[in-house]
């Protein structure tokens, strides 16, 4: 479990010089920053003595606690885990309903790679959403593509867009994917980060097919206190079809032709190439590079 440069950038931006409050990490997070990334952070935090001292003392893979205290300036930083082997301050199985005294207690909740290892994911993510105070931030970094076997699950941007909805009291700030070179994501420096459009707004599925691993980063704010996931979480393109909307676009046209006439010679390779492009980060209708 850990945080990389893109996570640090996202948290610094949303924190924007604020101080005080209580942060929670799922598991006790490690921090992985390359020298070039530290130089970039140093330049952005010039004049902040505590932050500069943290950078001077930084060691690869060290616990992220000091970053939350000295750089993000939280008064208290807790970590939650099912066991105490990494020194978590709260011992709790997040795959079971958390006790009431943990609900609405935190101004920032960060997952840097725990939720994919928890079998009862709907229970776990609902707990995360409950533990945030009103106006608190929830930030998640999760496996998205080509990390099969890392945990129980890999996650889709569609799921994040549907989970963090007004019906659950949340305002989704962004869903982004970061492409890496190595299966250990932290070994890559300065990942390319892309914002993912909402499939419901596009009216089509937003697929992702990459040759390299990719992780997904989600940030949401709890705007109102409502019970998370009180409504069913449904995939947007099916909801549209149930409402009578007909599939549109080139792929829908090709599939319709195949159903009517059978697959003509040469159609499969053409359709396959189009599908690969549509599911790539080169598809600017679906993905926009931000870092």
Description:
By secondary structure, the chain is of the alpha/beta class. It folds into two domains: 2-238, Rossmann fold (3-Layer(aba) Sandwich); 247-278, no CATH class. The chain contains ten helices and twelve strands. Strand 7, helix 5 and strand 8 (132-145) form a beta-alpha-beta unit. The mean pLDDT is 92.
Structural class determined from secondary elements: alpha/beta
Helix-strand topology string: EHEEHHEHEEEHEHEEHEHHHE
Distance between the termini: 22 Å
State the helix count. Answer: 10
Helix content: 25-40%
Task: Describe the strand arrangement of the main beta sheet, using strand numbers.
Answer: 6-5-2-7-8-11-9-10-12
CATH H-tier superfamily of the largest domain: Vaccinia Virus protein VP39
Label the CATH architecture of the largest domain: 3-Layer(aba) Sandwich
By CATH reckoning, the class of the largest domain would read: Alpha Beta
Radius of gyration: 21 Å
Kindly state the number of beta strands: 12
- Would you tell me the overall average pLDDT? 92
Q: Per DSSP, what share of the residues sits in E-state strands of 2 or more residues? A: 15-25%
Write the layout of secondary structure elements.
Layout: E1 2-3, H1 5-15, E2 22-26, E3 30-31, H2 35-44, H3 49-57, E4 62-63, H4 65-71, E5 76-81, E6 90-91, E7 106-111, H5 121-131, E8 132-145, H6 157-163, E9 170-179, E10 192-196, H7 199-202, E11 214-222, H8 236-242, H9 250-261, H10 267-278, E12 287-289
Parallel strand pairs: 1-3, 2-5, 2-7, 5-6, 7-8
Antiparallel strand pairs: 3-4, 8-11, 9-10, 9-11, 10-12
